[in-house]
Design goal:
This is Phosphotransferase. Helix content is 43%, strand content 18%. By secondary structure, it is an alpha+beta fold. The strands form four sheets. Strands 1-2-3-5-4 form a five-stranded antiparallel β-sheet, with helices on both faces. A three-stranded antiparallel β-sheet has the order 6-10-11. Helix 4 packs parallel to helix 9, helix 6 packs across helix 10 and helix 10 packs antiparallel against helix 11. The termini are far apart.
Length: 297
């Protein structure tokens, strides 16, 4: 580890050692280094190749997630010098839910999804007074929008040029859904959304309890439909548990704000997969469209 980075870490937590990941840790998150302080406490050093992601997560922890919660890692600071970008946070117990989900019965899954939905709503509510625009957290004025309509059109406009890669029905649905953006979301208020709120980033302990959520580099000011969509492809009982924690009921699934967003999300995901030859994206996009067809009014 670079000496300058080591000295910075010591300025935050004192002397430390790098430890191996004995618990399986954060699964595929290979940009994590596990540390132990002289006091025996565990920490995570997260390294970034992309400075924009580092900036977003630094802003997220420093300004938006800085309230007391056992389910959010404690933030000790961000480091950026040359080509080294890092944040130092506390280590949550356990492993990712994605790495262990087949071990869980329905009652445990419902409990975890309920708690995750509850945390999503808490993060949203704690920042409602800061929600003045849509788009990126990096405060770059060129990447922010005053209305939900502007934000959503910027998000989905680029896919219109590639509608020839999907069949005619999907192309027409995309154009119809895109043209409805101004009408449907005209007065939609901004909320804080985690676009990477998935089981890959939910931590669970040896007692099968949610210990917290990691990875906030895709936090953005968006709309509620994005948060609701986080569990749309899960089993029905899991969706119900998440919604109960988040504070909505199943009626939201037939709301046109949700269904219109789901159509745009599904088709854009298919387009992305086809253009970039990513079969998994095509598969997920088709599942989203199937969910759209099952829930539309």
């Amino acid at each position: 580890m670079e000496p300058l980075l080591c000295r910075w870490i010591e300025s935050k937590i004192g002397t430390f050692i790098i430890v191996s990941d004995l618990e399986g840790g954060w699964g595929t998150h290979n940009n994590i280094r596990y540390l132990m302080g002289a006091d025996g406490r565990n920490y995570c050093l997260k390294l970034f190749d992309n400075i924009k992601k580092w900036k977003v997560e630094s802003i997220a922890y420093n300004e938006l997630l800085n309230f007391e919660s056992e389910l959010i890692p404690k933030y000790y600071g961000g480091f950026s010098y040359g080509n080294i970008n890092a944040i130092l946070i506390s280590r949550l117990k356990g492993q990712t839910l994605a790495s262990r989900i087949n071990e869980f019965d329905d009652s445990y899954k419902k409990s975890i999804f309920y708690e995750s939905g509850k945390l999503s709503r808490e993060i949203e509510d704690k920042n409602i007074d800061k929600a003045n625009w849509f788009g990126a957290l990096n405060l770059d004025i060129s990447a922010t929008y005053e209305t939900a309509s502007e934000y959503l059109k910027s998000k989905f406009y680029k896919h219109i040029a590639f509608l020839d890669v999907v069949d005619t029905d999907l192309a027409e649905l995309y154009k119809k859904s895109f043209n409805l953006i101004d009408k449907i979301y005209i007065e939609e208020p901004p909320v804080l959304v985690n676009e990477d709120n998935t089981v890959r980033n939910w931590m669970v302990d040896s007692e099968n309890r949610l210990t917290g959520i990691v990875d906030f580099e895709y936090l953005t000011w968006g709309i509620k439909a994005q948060t609701v969509s986080a569990v749309v492809l899960k089993d029905e009982y899991i969706i119900d548990a998440y919604f109960k924690g988040y504070g909505v009921d199943r009626d939201v699934l037939s709301n046109i704000k949700y269904t219109n967003y789901l159509a745009l999300l599904g088709i854009s995901t298919i387009i992305y997969g086809k253009v970039n030859n990513i079969d998994k994206a095509v598969f997920l996009g088709n599942r989203l469209i199937a969910k759209y067809k099952g829930n539309k009014i």
